[in-house]
Amino acid sequence: MEFPIGATVTAQALETNPYPLLAELQQYEPVSWIPALNGWLVTGRDQAIEAMKDADRFTVDDPRFTTAKVIGDSMLNMDGPEHTRHRAAFAEFFRPKAVRDGFEDWLNEEARRLLQPFESGGEIELRSALAGPLAVTTIVHFLGLKDVAARDVLGWYKHITNAIVGMATGMPVSAEGQSAVEAIRERVRNTLADAGHASLVQTIHDRGVLRPDEVTPATAVVMFGAIETSEGMTANVLWHLLTNPAAMASVRADRSLVAAAVQESLRLEPAAAVVDRYATQEVQLGDVTIPKGDLVTLSLLGANRDPAVFPDPDRFDLLRPNHQQHITFVEGPHRCVGLHLARAETQSAVNAVLDLFPKLTFDAERSGDPQGLIFRKPAKVTCTF
Ligand code: HEM
Q1: Assuming Cys at both sites, which of 10, 146, 217, 252 could form a disulfide with 72, CB separation 3.0 to 4.6 Å?
Q2: Which residue(s) pair with 298 in the sheet?
Q3: What is the pTM of this model?
Q4: Which residue has a Cα nearest atom 11 of ligand 1?
């Protein structure tokens, strides 16, 4: 088969202004071969959902996923019963009630605490002041790791993501990546050694669903799953509200709309724009036959703007009746385990901004639009008040 639109796609276009291209692909080539990605790109919503629900045919358990080579095996690169076991170790702690009872008050206070130093300044850049730091402090607090500062986590994250990218281009695991994983292992060990320090890591270890050697990779994957994604999620919804003054006014007037604003922002701009799978056999997806072993990238960004499901899909519509039908957290076995915590975190962030800054003016020139090939967010969200 020929894929003329797919042949024109560049990584740069996907990173900067992907919407027209994704809309065209969705209409004419919902499953398309993209030479620039050396893989298939699925923009059709039905086809993307079919693939993410079918781990037998579209797996994450493939040696080309370099994350596992750096941090060790975790739920992110497993399918089948082992994946179920790894997820089961964490799932109950991420349930809505557990998040509400255990973290909502803390999140509200933490978001306000992070903003307070800026209250008298007249200007604030919300991604670096709030979205980024809140993502890190939230997950450190949630895991309960002892003696871990936000800057440690960011340093580990940088070294580990660099190592993962390096490996994808054929390099061995970097020394910095190895030391970062070793540092996490040491912090897990210290946390477990302190009998007086209650933590989720301790609970997970003691329950024995995971073997002791599996606790560090599991901790790392939960920690890193929460950082760049949650930062992007919060930055994106603030950006959407600031660039849609009518929506901002509605949300200010009726705080119950904050949840809707978060959902609509998740739909329009998924902070993680794509997820990757590998075909375990020759598979039929839509009209296309995909050979065994091929990379299949599912575009959440594309699928979330399907006009048949979301009329006028590029519009930020606070009152859209079905925005929660976005697939930003994917469907099927790998559905984001942290989604309730992430949503609570972002809602706290938005509420804190509305509380502390009753009149914000967006500075578009010193901000940016959401961009990125995999992780999408604006470079800055600058406001004056
Ligand atoms: C507290 C914050 C978060 C935590 C702790 C977290 C953790 C995780 C973990 C551990 C997984 C792997 C689940 C599995 O493979 O079974 C996962 C999957 C996923 N998460 Fe999250 N996450 C968080 C926030 C977010 C946010 C904000 C987004 C996007 C807006 C996001 C998008 C995803 C996606 C798309 C997947 C599926 C990956 C795939 O199917 O390959 N996550 N998350």
Answers
A1: 217
A2: 42, 275
A3: 0.97
A4: 336
